[in-house]
Specification:
alpha+beta; nine-stranded mixed beta sheet; five-stranded antiparallel beta sheet; 29 strands
Length: about 425
């Protein structure tokens, strides 16, 4: 791959090259999604979800069927193998297969390279030195790619993927060359407001709470979006509970305020978010119910608030955002996603990929210290908030898609000293909300 020999292996099956799913995601294109529960391979573009069933030569682009002359994906136990020709359809790469020994040469880096001609017939060796094993014989005028320049030996690569060392004096004049390569990158569009989003979450836990919307808005100033906590996953089939109110939406619209209904995964302890998001049929049921509710209640947007996820569901969560974004976009509905501040243990939320599909990425820049913390401290210190904003930009989320969430509450802490045995006694906090929204 790009003049580097890798340990990963390809598989030859029925005259087609296949790569393991994990290898494809790690090295070539992490937008492929394998549902091992339902034996489906999915790929999401800016307009379609493309689906291929294991062992089939047919695939679906939304509702349209297409066919190729090879098996697209096959599963061996828990591992899926994807055909290179199919990978190439959606990936900026080129590849060639060579024998003796079997090897696949893959190019994804199209930057300029240094080419050198061979002055006379010679050999490429495993290492620099005439006692090192010969890897290949090369003829005069053969063009090689120069990888590293040494004192007496240079590291080079042949067009067919042999990488080794050649005597420096056997090489001619170096020349910078460009690949004859064109690839049209896919463009993704977003529904973004002309003005900055000034949003408030409105906690609604019972239908009667919707009646407070007038007083809630009277106690706020300058907001243009409100997100009531109306929906949550209510079973392991992806069905949702619904607390929405058409009168609530109409009242907000009359005040010039958009309504982005919040969908949560936390209310029902019997629900396994992992179960739903890792099964395509259940994930689609959840998406369809969300869109149906948004249309029914004339919502302007959906706010996804999926918290406390385990890393095993990371790929399923991102696929959920991809698929939901297409459904939202098709109905003119804004999609926003709530995120923790960046940390090593939340990397699987893949905020950069979220931003490719979703319209807004909301950073929950609070709960730096929370009710269960072992030490007292600020809910959102300025350093914590600033770092949260800086980190999400550094991850590749465009600034115009970022909404910074801040707390309208603090905590009153009570601390006790160490006990007689010298053991620490945990701090305790009581939430204090001076200004409810």
């Amino acid at each position: 791959l790009n003049h580097e020999i890798l340990e990963q292996k390809a598989v030859v099956k029925d005259n087609m090259l296949y790569l393991e799913y994990d290898t494809v995601r790690k090295l070539l294109n992490d937008r492929f999604y394998w549902d091992g529960n339902e034996n489906l391979l999915l790929y999401t573009t800016a307009s379609d979800v493309i689906t291929a069933l294991a062992l089939e030569k047919e695939y679906s682009i939304t509702k349209k069927k297409e066919e190729v002359d090879y098996v697209i994906v096959y599963a061996d136990g828990q591992t899926a193998y994807i055909a290179m020709e199919y990978i190439k359809k959606y990936t900026d790469l080129d590849y060639q297969f060579y024998k003796d020994p079997n090897r696949m040469v893959v190019t994804t880096d199209w930057s300029d390279y240094t080419s050198v001609p061979v002055r006379g017939d010679t050999q490429i060796r495993y290492q620099g030195g005439i006692k090192s094993p010969i890897l290949a014989h090369v003829e005069k005028d053969t063009s090689l790619t120069l990888l590293e320049s040494g004192e007496n030996w240079n590291k080079v690569a042949t067009e067919d993927g042999i990488i080794g060392y050649i005597k420096k004096k056997r090489l001619g004049k170096e020349e910078t060359k460009s690949y004859n390569h064109t690839y049209e990158e896919e463009t993704f569009e977003h529904i973004l407001k002309d003005e900055k989003v000034t949003m408030a979450w409105h906690q609604v836990t019972v239908p009667e709470a919707n009646n407070s919307i007038a007083s809630v808005l009277q106690n706020t100033k300058g907001i243009n979006v409100i997100s009531p906590t109306w929906f949550y996953i209510n079973d392991n089939e992806g069905n949702i509970a619904n607390l929405a109110s058409a009168e609530y939406v109409k009242y907000c619209h009359d005040q010039g305020i958009e309504v982005w209904g919040l969908v949560s995964n936390l209310e029902n302890a019997e629900v396994s978010t992992t179960e739903i998001l890792t099964h395509t049929s259940k994930r689609e049921n959840l998406e369809n119910q969300i869109i149906a509710a948004a249309i029914q209640y004339d919502l302007d947007g959906i706010n996804v608030d999926f918290e406390a996820l385990e890393s095993a569901v990371g790929e399923g969560f991102i696929q959920f955002i991809r698929e939901l974004s297409l459904k939202c976009d098709g109905n003119g509905i804004v999609l926003s996603v709530d995120n923790y501040v960046s940390s090593d243990y939340t990397k699987f939320y893949d905020r950069q990929e979220q931003a490719v599909f979703a319209d807004y990425i909301i950073v929950m820049a609070y709960d730096e210290h929370y009710g269960g913390s072992k030490e007292s401290g600020s809910v959102a210190s300025i350093g914590f908030v600033t770092k949260g904003a800086d980190d999400i930009l550094a991850e590749g989320v465009p600034a115009e898609q970022v909404v910074l969430g801040m707390p309208f509450y603090t905590r009153v802490w009570a601390e006790t000293p160490k006990d007689s045995d010298g053991d620490d006694v945990e701090s305790a906090a009581e939430d204090y909300v001076p200004y409810e929204v």
